[in-house]
Amino acid sequence: MSDRRRFIAGNWKMNKTIAEAEELVQALLPRVGAVEDVDVVVCPPYLSLQAVVDSARGSAVQVYAQNMHEQDAGAFTGEVSAPMLTEIDVAGVILGHSERRQLCGETDRALQLKVPKALESGLIPILCVGETEEERERGDTERKLRHQVQEGLEKVPKERLHEVVVAYEPIWAIGTGLVATPEQAQDAIAFVRALVQGFDKEAGNRVRILYGGSLKPDNAAELLALPDVDGALVGGASLDAESFATIVETARA
Ligand code: PEP
User: Fold this and answer.
1) What CATH number is attached to the domain comprising 132?
2) Alpha helices, DSSP H, located in the chain
């Protein structure tokens, strides 16, 4: 196993009212609140962030947002900025999730600004990358990953590159029950690591790269055992305290 610290993040997406989010975090805390050898992160919707931050305070669970704008303030109706997140002690932010890229017009150009902005503001960015089914079938997986990683990391200062977390999420595996084979996941993630090494060798060795896409308690062990996989970004299975806690336990093993 590498000496990169394992990282398990639950992306709650647009699920859970404040009351439901509170219930989920209360169910999680006895199970994962004292885990010190893995980074345990939950990403509730904006409106629940404050409640979940307050409940998780003093525990090992960190709270991240699911997106942020690249500007600190301005005429951007419906957006939320980094200072608004840090003010309530949010610790990081998912950036470039494929649902935001596909459904909400997220662009590589905006991500080029968002990733360094998050770091400057004291937030750990989880930069999501991944190919569609058609791109994989056409043999374009590496081209797509190269483009997304290079755009997303281009403006990150070299000395801070290792702080970014990258999530490789094949779009065809997200929320579909289809999961990448261990070989597909390892190959893609090793390729992403090599891309980061291309910016800076040491940063590429240190950067944490997650797998995401229908990861569940019953397939977590084989994916988390892969040499370049440092953790997981979990969607559906993070909405159930027992499942999420089992995945965290698997990452500790
Ligand atoms: C995700 O949305 O980041 C994700 C990996 O979802 P799921 O685990 O449900 O496929």
Assistant:
1) 3.20.20.70
2) 18-32, 46-56, 82-87, 98-103, 108-120, 133-137, 141-153, 182-199, 201-206, 217-224, 241-252
Range of the domain at 203: 6-252
162 is catalytic: no
Angle at which helices 141-153 and 182-199 cross, to 10° = 40
Neighbours of 137 (CB within 10 A): 11
pTM of the model: 0.97
Query: Mind listing the pLDDT tens digit for each residue in 179-235?
Result: 999 999 999 999 999 999 999 999 999 999 999 999 999 999 999 999 999 999 999
**In a domain? residue 102:** yes
C-alpha 37 – ligand 1 centre gap (Å) = 23
Catalytic residue among 97, 106, 131, 135: 97
Protein residue closest via CA to atom 2 of ligand 1? 235
- What are 83's two structure tokens? 């200072």
Residue of 7, 8, 11, 43 to test ligand 1 pocket, by largest number of atoms within 8 Å of CB: 11
Would you say the CB of residue 220 lies under 6 angstroms from ligand 1?
no
In the chain, the number of structural domains is 1
Domain membership of residue 1 (yes or no) is no
Domain presence at residue 239: yes
**Angle, vertex CA 28, rays to CA 27 and CA 33, nearest 5:** 130
How many A from CA of 75 to the centre of ligand 1?
A: 31
Strands 124-129 and 92-95 come out as parallel
**pLDDT confidence of residue 2:** 80
To the query of whether residue 69 is one of the catalytic residues in this protein, the response is: no
Angle at 248 between CA 246 and CA 252, to 5 degrees: 110
